[in-house]
Design a protein that fits this description.
The complex is a heterodimer of chains A (426) and B (333). Chain A has helices at 81-85, 87-92, 102-115, 122-125, 139-148, 166-173, 179-186, 202-217, 230-242, 251-265, 311-326, 400-415, 418-421, and strands at 3-5, 15-21, 28-29, 34-39, 44-48, 53-57, 64-66, 70-75, 220-228, 271-274, 277-280, 286-288, 302-303, 340-344, 363-377, 380-394. Chain A has 426 residues and is α+β, with helices and mostly antiparallel strands. Chain B is an alpha/beta fold and 333 residues long. Chain B folds into 2 domains: 13-191, 3-Layer(aba) Sandwich (Rossmann fold), CATH 3.40.50.970; 204-331, Rossmann fold, CATH 3.40.50.920. The longest helix of chain B has 15 residues, at 14-28. The chains are: A alpha+beta (426), B alpha/beta (333).
Amino acid sequence: MPDVNMPKLSDTMEEGTIVEWKKKTGDEVKTGDVLAEVESDKATFDLEAESDGVLSILVEQGVPAKIGAPIARIGDGSAAPAQEKAKAPAGAAKPKETDTPPQVVDETQAAAQSAAPAPHTAPQAAPASPQGGEVKASPLAKRLAAEMGVDISSLKGSGPEGRIVKEDVLAAAGGKISTERRMPTAAPRAPGPDVEVIDPTRMQATIARRMTESKSTVPEFTVTVEARVDEAVKMRQQLKDSVPGAEKVTMTDMLVRACALALRKFPEVNTSWVDARFQRKRAVNIGLAVAPSQGMGLLVPVVHDADLKDLVQISIESRQVIERARSGRPNEGDLSGATFSISNLGMYGVDEFVAIINPPEAAILAVGAIKDVPVVEEGRIVPGKVMRMTLSVDHRVFYGATAAQFMAEVKRLVENPVTLVVPPTR
Amino acid sequence: MAVKAPAATDEKLYRVALREALNEEMERDDNVYVIGEDIGKFGGAYRVTEGLLDRFGPQRVVDAPIAEEVIVGCAIGSAMLGLRPVVEMMTINFSLVAYDQIVNNAAKIRYMFGGESKVPMVIRMPGGAGHQLSAQHSHSLEVLYGLIPGLLVVAPTTPEDAKGMLKSAIRSDNPVMFLESMSLYNVRGIVPAGDYTTPLGKAALRRSGSDVTIVGVSRMAVLANEAAKQLEEEDVDAEVIDLRSIRPIDWPPIVESVKRTGRCVVVEEGWSTYGVTAEIAAGVSERCFDYLDAPVRRLGGAQVPMPYSLPLEKASIPTSEDIKKLVRSVVGK
């Protein structure tokens, strides 16, 4: 469908005005027919048809149009001229207001360019228009809107400067389409190597070496017991509520105390196997496996002489030593000298697990979560709190019977927590 | 499960970490030597090279005249013949005197000699403002070296990185511009004991977050981290990437992060017009366009010669408050 464009009638002409249309929309015209009288800056000329067909007028009389801009079309009469013509009156309403009404011209051009391939793409071209209808939306919002079939021009932006942002599109899409469900098909995995090689930190390299050494040199067996901890939980609450200074006693602190007492009773557990001989330690120093505050890794701050300290002292000291270790400012000895270790993953909801011994220590206690379970008491089912503890043992240092007795003692102490608050003996 | 952390790890000053790296590398490799102004008897303007003269002697700890072009020229020549010079520029400002040597010789020799000669040289130099050293001594000129192909340009911000990256720089066969910061010399941090290296060319994730990615250059990475911590209270979850390597730029972690957060703020102490932040912002826009939920914003120092007046100087350097403000503007809070 050839356009009839505003002709350039003189070198200085920038725009022209239709003085009078000699034909009407819908008229059959032939090549050479005078279509209109056009006024340039210098003179008035007749505009002739350059092809045969049915005329459809785009720019009304009296409205200026830039040279080259389509002012009419000559087609086969099948196009809906009313729709195309509709734009002209909008511009015609204010012909004198500006010397160039680019809105009319530009939109007509845009429509003309997109008419042939796909008329319905016109609305998408609209945001790119320098005039009026631009949608202020982030690239992400535009992409999501397209993926989710949300009409972005219908949204109101909540972002900075009124920009339509991701959340607006998601809200418009409603709960029906979640990004989580759509994203996998929409967004391919970011390009990159299939395997990322990461250098370990010094700490991680040391852990890898020590754990391999432990697993390949220590003949290890494990013993698990389950302890009722209703009383311990109750006592902890009592300490918190009514004993100044003991507000922050944790289950781990109680275990430190219980293990310290049990280690005093079973010195063979507080022992190392070095150069084919037993090294029995006098000091009872208990290491606590904790995660560092930043990055992946493992720290084992140590409560020294735990057997000589009461529960509150242990609580305060363990908190301090853990804090120093996590902040990366340990004091000398904070991270060394442990004779036995405890690793408590209870706070993560772990039921039970097996820890790897940290040589030259002979054992490590792995502690699970406190769980509410039905327990049988004197033939009746009652609610109870239980906690599972697994001792990993270096079999060169002590044996099954000792391990069982040691765990029985830890269990007894934890189940009778009053034993944990009596003052330590020297 | 249970393992002790490396017991020898402890906390040291940034400057001490650098000194350790120099000591260890000079001990490890006889070809390593240091040269610069006042680095021997005086121990260096920032005390980084203290003790080196006594330990390694004047042959390997060279007190040079005040002639930066000569110092760098000497280093380049000796590097081409097999030594591994570590130059100390008293400040990055003085390196401008040697800019021709660095740009026209150090950066290009390996290329122009078809790889038959190389320049394994490190130039250490502190930059940054904040000490009332005025307009001629307060530059952050990362970008002047960042734009030169043939140079590696790094800016460590932690003592651990300072030591590990200096060791990597000394062992590199290419000229490395090692940009220190006057304001970081007295920062303390964990420094693993003994020999370790930190790779050049890699950015570091300092903090994970989901709302916005803050990329910090040199000391601004430290401030970005502080800002991110404070923004927690405002319910803004900021991710912080320490650029560390200005040339080459380590794009993958930045791109991955911005695609996740949808927002990006870039901060440097130097002038942001034509700055490192300009480069990062452009690269992020190119690589993450369809993932951006807000314009990439950047922050740099005031576009003025650094004022001597303390209040004016303070007003010219980005603060964590400035970073917070910019982050709020992109997250819409």
